[in-house]
Design a protein that fits this description.
This protein has four helices and no strands. It is mainly α and 106 residues long. The radius of gyration is 15 Å and the shape is flat. It is a multi-pass membrane protein. This is Guanidinium exporter.
Length: 106
């Protein structure tokens, strides 16, 4: 169950990061509220996952999901630049996440 909490926490990290972008510096109330609620929920689920998973594994996977998710959302939704170097960097993050999962005993 810890891995489910962790994946959902990572997805919520992408949600709150996107909502923060839409909040325009917290000047728009609905996206600002989504940001805060998403942050709290993401941190809570990360905390629950850390009851079982090692700190290094949980935190690395959480930030990796957030980083790759935000990267993809930026490209697919916000029209951000796609370059070979950015795609390779995203692929390396995913490879690191897979290795971290495979190296975890939990």
């Amino acid at each position: 169950m810890a891995w489910v909490y962790l994946v959902v926490a990572g997805i919520l990290e992408v949600v709150w990061a996107y909502a923060m972008k839409l909040s325009d510096g917290f000047s728009r109330p609905v996206p600002a509220a989504v940001t805060l609620v998403g942050m709290i929920a993401s941190f809570a689920l990360l905390s629950f996952s850390m009851k079982t998973l090692p700190l290094g594994t949980a935190y690395t996977v959480w930030t990796g999901i957030g980083a790759v998710g935000a990267f993809l959302l930026g490209i697919l939704v916000l029209g951000e630049q796609v370059s070979l170097m950015r795609v390779v960097a995203g692929g390396l993050i995913v490879a690191g996440l897979i290795l971290m999962k495979l190296s975890s005993s939990s």
